[in-house]
Amino acid sequence: MSAKKKDLLSSAMKRTSEWISSQEVSSDVTVHVGEASFSLHKFPLLSKCGLIKKLVSESKNDSDASVIKIPDIPGGSEAFELAAKFCYGINFDMSTDNIAMLRCAAEYLDMTEEHSVENLVVRAEAYLNEVALKSLSSAITVLHKSEELLPVAERVKLVSRCIDAIAYMTCQESQFCSPTSNNSNNEVVVQQSKQPVVDWWAEDLTVLRIDSFQRVLIAMMARGFKQYGLGPVLMIYAQKSLRGLEIFGKGIKKIEPKQEHKKRVVLETIVSLLPRDKNAMSVSFLSMLLRAALYLETTVACRLDLEKRMGLQLPQAVLDDLLIPSYSFTGEHSLFDTDTVQRILMNYLEFEYEGVRLSNNGADLAGDMERVGKLMENYLAEIASDRNVSLQKFIGLAELIPEQSRVTEDGMYRAVDIYLKAHPNMSDVEKKKVCSLMDCQKLSREACAHAAQNDRLPVQTIVQVLYYEQQRLRGEVTNDSEAPAPPPPPAAAATVLPPKLSSYNDELSKLKRENQDLKLEILKMKMKLKEFEKETEKKSSTTTMSSNHSSPISTAASMDKPPLRRKSFMNSVSKKLGKLNPFGITPGRTKPPKDRRHSIS
C-alpha cells in the first residue's frame, strides 16, 4: 500500500472514530482486562490492534466475537485504556512514567505499521529515542518501570537500551571514568572517595531492582567506569535496600521469610560488586554488611569475603566495628560473635606477615600492628564482662595478639582483671592460665600498684609483679649510680631545682641508703646463720639422744629459740622491702593466705 493511500485510510478511520464518539453509538464488543471491563466498538479497535482483529476472526459466532478477554497484557487495565484511547484518537500525554507501559502494550496488542500508519509502536519508539533516553533521570525511570513489564520489555530491547543509555551518561557525568593507567593515581582517587564524593545520580539508581542495578554497574565498568568509584554508589544502595534489619542487637527475627530471601539476594549481590582496591570502602560499612550477612544467614563465601576485607583494613577499625552481635536467637551463647572477630584478626595477621615479607616499609607496618594490638586489647576488655565467654575463647583470642604489638601490658591486664571479676568461680589453675596471658615485666607503675593490691589475682602473679618492680627499681638505682656526675653549674647560674626533679633525686638517694641497709642486714643474717650451724654441729656431736628424757643441750637449744630470731630477721627485711615498695602497700597485704602458703618457695 502506498504512503498516500495509508494517509487517506488513517484520516478516514480517525474521522470514523470521532463520529462514533460524538454520536454515542452503542458498543458492540466488551473487552475484559483482568478485573476491568471496557464497552467499546469493534471498528476503531480492529483498525489498529492486530491482536483484537485476530481474536475476532477466530471467533465461531457473533456472541463469541462480542466478548474479548485479554488477561495478561503488560501494564494491565491502565495500559489497555491508553491503547484504546489511541485507537479512538483521543489525546493523552506520553511521559517517562507511562512510556514503557505503552511500548510494551503496543507490542502485545500488535499495534504496528502493518495495521495503521503511525501506529502506537512507532509513536512510542519516537518518544523513547527523542525524549526518554536522552536524560539520565528519565532513562532510570523508564528502566524502573520496565522491571514490571517483563518479559515483553526484554523482547522489545527496552531494558537493554535503558541500561546502555544510563551507562553512557553516567560515564560522561562521573569523575571516576577518566582513564588512568598509573596505580598511584588510583590510590589518590581511592583516598578521595573517603570524603562524601557522591555523584548526584547515585541516589536515583537506588530505585532499581537489584538485578537491574547490577546490570547497570557492569555496563558502566564495560564503558570505562573505574571499579573503586562504585564504592559510594554501593553504599547508598545498601543503606536503602537493607534498611529495617535489626543487626545491632539480639532477639527473635522480625522479618518474613520472603522478605528475608529478597534482602539476602540483595546483600550477596552487593558484596560481589564491592571494589577490590584497598581502602575503597570504609571499615564501618564493611562491618555493617557483615552484621547483615550474619543476620540474614548468607552463603559462607559471602561472609568470608567480608571478613577478609575487614582484616585487610583492621588498623583503620574502631571498637564498635568489632562488636558484632551473636545472632544465635537462643539466649544461650555469648553476647558478641568472638569467632568472627578471631577470623578477622587471623586474616589481618596473614596479610601483615605477607606484607612484611614483600615490603620494606617496616615503620608503617609496625604502627599498624601497634594500633591493632590496642584495638584487640580493648575488644578483650569489652567481651570479658560477658559470663558466657568461655575460658578457651578468651585465651585463644588473646594469644593471637602479637607480642610486638603490645608496648605495655596495661591493656591486657585490664582485660584479664575484668574477666576474673566476671568469672568469680574460676579455679586457681584457670586463673593462672588467664594471668599467664600478660607479661608482668611490661606493666606500668600504675598497673603494678593496682595488681599488687588486687585480691582477684593468684598469689604467684602478685609475687611476680612485686619481684619485677623491685628489679626495675634496682636497675634504676644502679644506672643512676653508674652515670657520670654532671659538672657543677656556675655560681652565677646556680638555681634551685624544679620541685619534680628535686623530689625524684631525693627519692633516689633514699633508695640508695635503704638498699645499702638491706645489704648489711643480709650480711648479718648470713653470719648469724653460720654461727648457728656451727653451734648445732657441736651440740649434735657431743649429745646422746634419749627417747625418754630431754638433754640439757636440747633444752638450751630450745631456750635459744633460733626460729624466733629468723622470724625477727624476716620482719626486719619485710620492713626494709616495705620502704622500697613504690605502691605504698604494707607487707601484710601481699602475704598469702595460710591455705596457699606452701605454694610459695
Automatic annotation (TrEMBL):
Quote the biased-composition stretches of kind Polar residues, using this chain's numbering. Answer: 548-557
Which residue intervals define the domain NPH3 in the entry? 199-472
Residues of the BTB domain: 27-96
Give the span(s) annotated as Disordered.
477-497, 533-601
**Recorded coiled-coil stretches:** none
Indicate the family of this protein: Belongs to the NPH3 family.
Q: What PANTHER family does its record include?
A: OS12G0117600 PROTEIN
Q: What is this protein called?
A: BTB/POZ domain-containing protein SR1IP1
- The protein's organism comes out as Raphanus sativus
